[in-house]
Each structure stands twice: as C-alpha cells, then as structure tokens.
Specification:
It contains ten helices and two strands; from the N terminus they run αααββααααααα. By secondary structure, the chain is mainly alpha-helical. Helix 6 runs antiparallel to helix 7, helix 6 packs antiparallel against helix 9 and helix 8 packs across helix 10. The two termini are 37 Å apart.
Length: 254
C-alpha cells in the first residue's frame, strides 16, 4: 500500500527511533531541523509526532520537549511498530515473547471457538485451509491463508476483546508463519496439524481443540528455533510474504 506524506513521515521517524538512531531518553531534533531533513512541513511533523506518541514511542510535555520512551512503553500490538522492528531485525527475546503470547491466547480462544463457532465461522476457516492446501500443491501465497486461518479461529470464539486482539496480532503472527514456512516441508508437515484443530472445532470438542492447537504452536516454536540457530536472514514484514513453489504435498488428501 502506498502511504501519503504523513504515513511516510511516521515511518521515517518510527524506524529511526526503533533502530536507536534517536536514543531512549533523548529529545527529537527541533521542528525546523526535522522539517528540513524530512522535506515536510511543520504540520506534517507535528501530526507524525502525535501518531508516535499514540504508539508509545514518544512523550511530549512542557519543559520536557519530545523525548524517546523505552521499548517497554511501545505498543507491540501496533503493526507499524512490528514492521519497523522487522526491518532492524527481530531478537530471540522478541520471538520468544511472541511464542509465549500465542501459547497464552490461542488455546483459550480455540476452546471457546469449539463451543461458539457458527456455520459461517467454520466456512471461513475451511476456505483458509483450502487456500493453504492449494498453495502447497500448486504454489502461491501460503502465509496469507495461514494468517486467515488463525485469525478466523480467534474471531470464532466471539469474544470482543479477543477479536480486537486478533487484528493487532496479525503482524506478529505473520512473522512466526514466515519463519515456519521458510523451513523445507514446513507448510506440508503443518497442514495436517491445522486440519486437526479445525476438525476438533467442527466436532465441538474444546479439550481436543486445545490439545491440537498446542501441538501446532509448539511445532511452530521448534521451526522458529531451527531458523534462528541456522542464522539465516529473518523475514521483513516490509515486503510481501514469499510464495511457495508448486509441489505435491506429502500429506494424505482429505
């Protein structure tokens, strides 16, 4: 998506903060300097600063100026913040936090989905699964369908707080899915694990659904550790997810 002047300015300042070019506790340069370096008006700079304050990266106040906050204040559920971090590089600690968050949220949400999912919910998740399967067999965008599958499960629990979280978790989950997908046969081996989760939801079996999603999450955690240990370059969310090459999956057809 092409961003406007405001969006581009927010990106430039946000990346500079996340990368450490503006150190924690330091004040941003004066407005005239920012306007000159970014090539924008004072109005654009001020609106960009407001956006970064809302994202938890900056604080403003009388006699304080505009200063950079420590990362524990940053809104890690904000997709922009995650994208900026992905450009700098994810740390092992960041990915561990993500994995722990998934283990807390998804099993509880899937239990509720097994109790509350509507026919429309099931259809949406089935379509996402079909898209994953097609991407493996014919080539294509697996990650987008994988993300749709998991967000569909979160929405199917019909809890407003969890549904809101599903939107915020999108960028974080995409990171994990891209890492898993980068492993040879990763998508093909995880496909039956996704099927097991969906079948348990269809069967209205909360305990079975919870066990199945934990197997899937823990498998993804092993994939992430393997990629980290290989020291391969981690994915950037600033570019589209890589597409799979066509192949015949080593999984039994359903």
């Amino acid at each position: 998506m092409i961003k406007n002047v405001h969006g581009n300015t927010v990106d430039l300042l946000g990346e500079a903060i996340v990368s450490g070019r503006h150190a924690v506790g330091s004040a941003l340069p004066p407005e005239p300097m920012l306007c000159e370096s970014l090539g924008v008006s004072r109005t654009v700079v001020r609106e960009a600063v407001k956006s970064l304050v809302a994202k938890g990266l900056l604080v403003t106040g009388p006699k304080l100026g505009t200063r950079v906050l420590p990362e524990e204040h940053w809104n890690w559920f904000d997709p922009d913040v995650v994208v900026w971090q992905s450009k700098i590089g994810f740390t092992r600690e960041f990915l561990r936090d993500l994995q722990e968050l998934r283990r807390v949220v998804e099993p509880a949400a899937v239990r509720l989905a097994a109790e509350r999912a509507t026919a429309e919910d099931i259809q949406n998740i089935e379509e996402a699964f079909a898209g994953m399967k097609a991407a493996i067999e014919l080539g294509g965008d697996y990650v987008t369908h994988d993300l749709r599958f998991h967000q569909g499960l979160l929405r199917a629990c019909h809890n407003r707080m969890v549904i809101q979280m599903s939107k915020a978790l999108g960028a974080l989950l995409r990171t994990a899915f891209e890492l898993s997908t980068s492993r040879p046969d990763g998508p093909a081996s995880s496909l039956p694990l996704h099927r097991a989760v969906l079948d348990a939801v269809i069967e209205r079996d909360p305990a079975k659904a919870e066990r199945a999603i934990l197997v899937l999450i823990d498998g993804a955690g092993e994939d992430i550790e393997a990629v980290l240990n290989s020291r391969r370059k981690l994915p950037s969310l600033a570019v589209p997810a890589p597409r799979l090459k066509a192949r015949t999956p080593a999984v039994a057809p359903r």
